[in-house]
Specification:
The protein is α+β, with helices and mostly antiparallel strands. Helices cover 30% and strands 33% of the residues. It has four helices and six strands. The protein has a six-stranded antiparallel β-sheet with strand order 1-5-6-3-2-4. Helix 2 (56-66) runs antiparallel to helix 3.
């Protein structure tokens, strides 16, 4: 398993959302504990674990854009600090397709679960990480982080 690169993230999000998405290295690192949502990926056979963490603005923006939900709904989610169920479901769909961002050498990578940022004990120490700013045209700017590392014993 390997972490994705900026170009792959941009391509995936642009294709899924059907709109321009700007992705660039982030100036601020998003910690797993500070994330609104975190996808946990595994391999078959079991191997390194990958995570895709989103802050609330990036989670709301990607989720809303997927279903053509108006940007105001994403902005309201950020303001209220709550990701509505419908947006959480959309985000889960995006993160499921995002498993391909971690695939390498024909290894099967699957989404195990999507969690809130408060219950993350599956990654001991990331061996690699990538932090990016994501701007979905018309939606709030957010930060995403991608981690790969060994699972905790």
């Amino acid at each position: 398993m390997h972490p994705p690169n900026v170009a792959d993230i941009r391509r995936l999000l642009s294709e899924l959302l059907g709109r321009d998405v700007e992705v660039k290295p982030a100036r601020v690192k998003l910690g797993l504990a500070g994330a609104a949502a975190v996808a946990v990926y595994t391999t078959d056979p079991p191997g390194p674990v990958g995570h895709w963490a989103c802050d609330l603005p990036s989670a709301a923006s990607v989720a809303a854009a997927l279903s053509l939900t108006p940007p105001g709904v994403a902005s309201e989610a950020v303001k209220s600090k709550v990701l509505p169920d419908a947006l959480a479901e959309n985000l889960g769909e995006v993160m499921n397709v995002g498993a391909r961002l971690f695939a390498s050498d024909g290894q099967r990578v699957t989404l195990r679960e999507v969690r809130s940022g408060t219950s993350l004990a599956t990654l001991a120490t990331p061996t690699t990480r990538l932090d990016v700013e994501v701007a979905v045209k018309g939606y709030p700017l957010g930060v995403m982080s991608f981690f790969v590392g060994a699972p905790t014993p």
